[in-house]
Design brief:
The chain is mostly helical. The chain contains 21 helices and 5 strands. The longest helix has 35 residues.
């Protein structure tokens, strides 16, 4: 064989390895972890993790530096994006009740290397999330102590170089929280969830008190007051001090506050009835938390002008300025409790993500060790506790939250893409159970379809429905270019093209000055980018969609996932270049681990062929029936046997 041929074969093998998908276990409910969580557990878990960071960590920073009085609009936009993403997570979480969340969903749907990218970002999300919220926890305690912790640390240890993204001073109080919660998580899932539910309940009560007191001291004039000259990052004053761009930048940061709906899916492997509990918990938690964020941000910006807000302890300082000392103490205690819940959620989630990746062999397998007594991945807990402590000591809250928002947005974007691809998979590609049917009959005229009987007519003849999932609808089979796409890849190709044009369109909207000055070239580029999105979206809808899954399904696919992807892209572009630089370094480290270890130790690479799932159908003269019970849902995990 020529060298060119060998190179070609090597390239094909490499591409096949990178894009191999995870084969689901025969029994998805089987796990070494303990299934003991209910819908209430998951709902309070989501609320507890989300309602701390947004209110007590981000609201002050977003209001002062980005959105001003319009901070509530930033939370509304972030809430809409989070809700759309939560629907995507709910569909997959109900269908794949395994630890790993978006990582596992991508592995099943689009391939290994993309799954690793998402999983590596999830580790970043929760590890840095724990560090950031613990830093805010320390700052809140310092506020109650009138700055004694900060002043003492600077006096005896010194400051750090903030120009390089480091915090003003090292934090040695936050790691105490991280270590304490790690011990709680290591003792078992029930102990963690019971503590989290209590924290979430107390947090809701404190939130109601803060909102009531805040609105009783509201002053509408704060929304129109002009910012004094010389105030850092004050903008032009008024309701939109930094324009609508400030609202978008604030929304991109606020998305960090909604990290928690994906953690609900991470707990799927320890949930009693994930198909029911995950969708309900996702929807309820995101809705409740969005209402909390809106009311709290309104109360804050109506109490004091945005340029006077202390981003480190926004509500405590606001009540102090109004001389409401009891409310200051109440909100400080509430903030400590709420941030504890958020940190607990991150400390619970990060070892589950690493456990899932290590179980698949993509990162070091020792991280998948589960203690037989506590049924928790204790090595993962120990490793990422150490990493979170180090990050907490050296980085400040704002840099931590922006960094983690980037990783989270990338993960949720891929999940929305995966929902589209999953809905248009062919029968051979799909690994999930479908609605029950009576039997399967061989296709007589089209090798790309399998025909399913769904009942009988009045004459006793079977009712035949031709299933063309993932294939072009019959009326579009002659469309040029589209009809030539390889079987089963049309939707994936169109989705990729749609995302490329979305990136171009978002770039023009956000950064092209020519568009706002009505330059002809900018208008033409915007029209072309918009047409590219529309055409690619139309190609997706030309294919036959599978809507016969047994579990929860996201409505209005592919429209809602496409909207979610576009909004996520806009948020990603509003994050600072420093966040992208740090993210690039993180991804470089991840790729070093994957290509030196993961790609060779992947469970899918070493798995014997005999362990892979398949569904075989016995063939009679004119009818094919499953080898199992005809009335059972069909698992389309392999190629049905074709008849002559």
């Amino acid at each position: 064989m020529s060298s060119d041929g060998k190179c070609h074969q090597g390239a094909v093998r490499a591409w096949t390895a990178l894009m191999r998908t995870k084969t689901l276990d025969k029994d998805l409910m089987e796990t070494p972890l303990k299934r003991c969580l209910s819908t209430i557990h998951l709902t309070f878990f989501g609320i507890g993790q989300m309602a701390g960071a947004g209110v007590y960590v981000l609201t002050g920073a977003v209001a002062k530096d980005h959105a001003g009085p319009a901070t509530f609009l930033s939370y509304i936009l972030a809430g809409i994006v989070a809700f759309l993403s939560a629907l995507s997570y709910a569909e997959f979480g109900a269908r794949v009740p395994k630890a790993g969340s978006a990582y596992t969903y991508a592995y099943v749907t689009v391939g290994e290397v993309l799954a690793f990218i998402i999983g590596w970002n999830l580790l970043l999300e929760h590890c840095i999330g724990a560090a950031g919220t613990a830093r805010a926890w320390s700052a809140t305690i310092d506020s109650l102590a009138n700055g004694a912790i900060r002043n003492g640390t600077i006096r005896y240890i010194g400051t750090m170089n903030t120009e390089h993204g480091l915090a003003e001073y090292p934090d040695f109080v936050g790691p105490l929280l991280i270590i304490g919660l790690a011990i709680c998580v290591a003792f078992g899932v029930e102990a963690s969830m019971n503590l989290n539910s209590l924290i979430a309940f107390v947090n809701i009560i404190v939130t109601i008190i803060v909102v009531i007191v805040g609105f009783t001291h509201a002053d509408v004039s704060t929304w129109s007051s002009a910012a004094p000259e010389g105030v850092k990052a004050a903008g032009s004053g008024g309701f939109l001090p930094h324009g609508f761009g400030g609202v978008l930048a604030g929304a991109a940061m606020c998305f960090f506050a909604y990290i928690g709906f994906d953690s609900i899916s991470i707990a799927g492997e320890e949930t009693k009835n994930p198909a029911k509990s995950i969708p309900i918990a996702n929807g309820v938690a995101v809705t409740v938390v969005t209402i909390i964020y809106i009311m709290m941000s309104l109360a804050l910006t109506l109490m004091i002008p945005y340029y006077k807000i202390d981003p480190n302890a926004a509500f405590s300082a606001a009540f102090q300025s109004k001389h409401i000392i009891w409310a200051k103490i109440t909100v400080s205690v509430g903030a400590i409790i709420a941030i504890t819940g958020t940190t607990l959620g991150n400390m619970f989630s990060v070892p589950r993500c690493s456990y899932a990746m290590a179980s698949d062999g993509l990162i070091f397998r020792c991280l998948a060790y589960v203690h037989p007594k506590t049924q928790t991945p204790i090595i993962s807990i120990a490793v990422f506790t150490l990493i979170s402590c180090v990050l907490n000591v050296i980085l400040d809250v704002e840099h931590l939250t922006e960094f983690v928002s980037l990783g989270t947005l990338i993960a949720v974007t891929f999940v929305s893409i995966c929902v589209i691809i999953l809905r248009y998979q062919t029968l051979e590609q799909c690994q999930f159970k479908l609605e029950p049917v009576a039997s399967i009959v061989a296709s007589s005229d089209d090798d790309d379809t399998v025909q399913l009987t769904s009942g009988q007519t009045d004459d006793g003849l079977p009712v035949i429905k031709k299933k063309r999932y993932g294939l072009l609808k019959e009326r579009f089979e002659t469309v040029p270019i589209v009809s030539r796409l390889p079987r089963g890849t049309g939707v994936a190709t169109a989705t990729l093209v749609m995302c490329v044009f979305m990136i171009l369109l978002a770039s023009l909207i956000l950064f092209c000055d020519g568009l706002y000055h009505a330059a002809w070239w900018a208008i033409i580029l915007t029209i072309l980018a918009s047409l590219g999105v529309i055409v690619a979206f139309t190609v997706i809808t030309m294919h036959e969609q599978n809507t016969e899954f047994l579990t929860f399904q996201m409505p209005l696919v592919p429209l809602l996932p496409a909207i979610s992807v576009f909004l996520n892209i806009i948020f990603l572009m509003k994050l600072s270049y420093l966040a992208w630089i740090r993210f690039s370094i993180w991804m470089l480290l991840g790729f070093l681990i994957y290509f030196s270890y993961g790609v060779w130790h992947s469970k899918e690479r070493t798995k014997p062929l005999s362990t892979q799932q398949s569904v075989t159908y016995n063939t009679n003269s004119d009818q094919t029936t499953p080898t199992n019970n005809d009335v059972e849902p069909l698992e389309m995990t392999g190629d049905p046997v074709k008849t002559d």
